[in-house]
Amino acid sequence: MRNQERASCTRETLRALLATTFVFAAATVASAQSVSPDTLLAHVRYLASDELAGREAGEPGADSAAAYIAQHMQAYGLEPSGTAGYLQDFEITTTISIAPDSRLVLQSARGTRELKLYEEWLPFNFSGGGSTSGEAFHAGYGLSAEDYDEFASHSEVSRIVVLRGGIPEDFDPHASDVDPSPRRKATLAREQGAEAVLITVPRIRVPQRGDPPHAVGIPAIQILEREDILTWLSDDELGVVLAAKVEPLRVKAYNVVGRLAGRDPKWADEVIVVGAHYDHLGMGGPGSLAPDIEAVHNGADDNASGTSVLLELAKYFAADMSRRPARSLVFVAFSAEEMGLLGSDYFVSNPPFPLEKAVAMVNYDMVGRLREGKLQ
User: Fold this and answer.
1) For 364, what's the count of Cα atoms within 13 Å in the CB-facing half-sphere?
2) 219 and which of 133, 145, 163, 244 could share a cystine (Cβ 3.0–4.6 Å)?
3) pLDDT at residue 31 greater than cutoff 50
4) Residues 93-105 pLDDT 10s
5) CA 178 to chain centre
6) pLDDT in tens, 242-276
7) How far apart are CA 178 and CA 160, in angstroms?
């Protein structure tokens, strides 16, 4: 009986939350319900302002956004549920530092050539650090799919793998599940036993804040795709001496967490999580639609809109106990979503309540877009 009652109560709560969201999206909420379309828009305008510089996790703009969200949770009367008030801090890797004495030397019958750091080679942002030397193994483009695997014909892979960037001209990327990204190629090489991977690129890209930071665990090196360098790399007996001295740069990011007790003491120990990520892309980079243009990426829809709805829902339910569901509500504004769901992953690993008490979650992401009068 209790399980049936629990399921019925949860469905009722979810219907109420979703119905409230649709009303918000259409901006037709009556003033008597204590929800203001003007306030929703004011939240979006602040969070998406140039002042916050795109709210990149770990940057001052994101910290200001976290403080803004926490201030409103406090004003609404939510119980702080972070590690320090409303804030739940965690560390993220934003980029890497590269020591100037890092070295890459090519050796063949031609002689010895040391490539120039930053001009002719550089670790990728996802590179691990380390030193190795030995004969290089050429694995073409390093692609692996069900019907196309350039590692499959080799029983043993050398410690150092050399790969071409991109895909072959006659290869149809839409006809396969292959991922031609340098990160995927480096991961595949590591899985084949490589200790380092060198991948040619049309231009050297200095690792930037906001690049996906997760290291692949081995040195992953970008090498300039220039004719004289390609000639060296194509030698059958190519020796490589590599010292990639990289260190991750770690900073703090913040989830913002507040709680409202449920109206029924019998169910109040169980939790419905209401979430939205508030971070965005900062000044652009790989996740942007224009990755080579450095400019403020305001992120009004992604996801100032969802954060605004989260705040107004918190205010709505906080204002009157009778509006609340039987279960408690935990409101979480996540950070570092754009870096790979890092904030939500940390929250799940370090919840402020027993995770088994969570019976449902509603997440709001990019809810500010109407098309032909319909919520998309």
Assistant:
1) 31
2) 244
3) no
4) 888 899 999 999 9
5) 21
6) 999 999 888 999 999 999 999 999 999 999 999 99
7) 22
- Alpha carbon distance 324, 316 (integer Å): 9
Superfamily of domain 2-93+250-375, CATH level 4 = Zn peptidases (3.40.630.10)
Smallest CA-to-CA distance from 101 within 218, 245, 212, 213 is with 245
Q: Write the single-letter amino acid at 108.
A: S
User: For the chain, which residues make up each domain, given as ranges?
Assistant: 2-93+250-375, 100-244
pTM of the model: 0.74
Per-residue three-class SS string for the chain: CHHHHHHHHHHHHHHHHHHHHHHHHHCCCCHHHCCCHHHHHHHHHHHCCHHHCCCCCCCHHHHHHHHHHHHHHHHHCCEECCCECCEEEEEEEEEEEECCCCEEEEEECCEEEECCECCCEEECCCCCCEEEEEEEEECCCCCEECCEECCCCCCCCCCEEEECCCCCCCCCHHHCCCCCCHHHHHHHHHHCCCCEEEEEECCCCCCCCCCCCCCCCCCEEEEECCHHHHHHHCCCCCEEEEEECEEEEEEEEEEEEEEECCCCCCCCCCEEEEEEECCCCCCCCCCCCCCCCCCCCCCHHHHHHHHHHHHHHHHHHHCCHHHCCCCEEEEEEECCCCCCCHHHHHHHHCCCCCHHHEEEEEECCCCCCEECCEEC
Strand partners, 121: 117, 223
Q: Is the peptide bond before 363 cis (omega within 30 degrees of 0)?
A: no
Residue type, 267: W
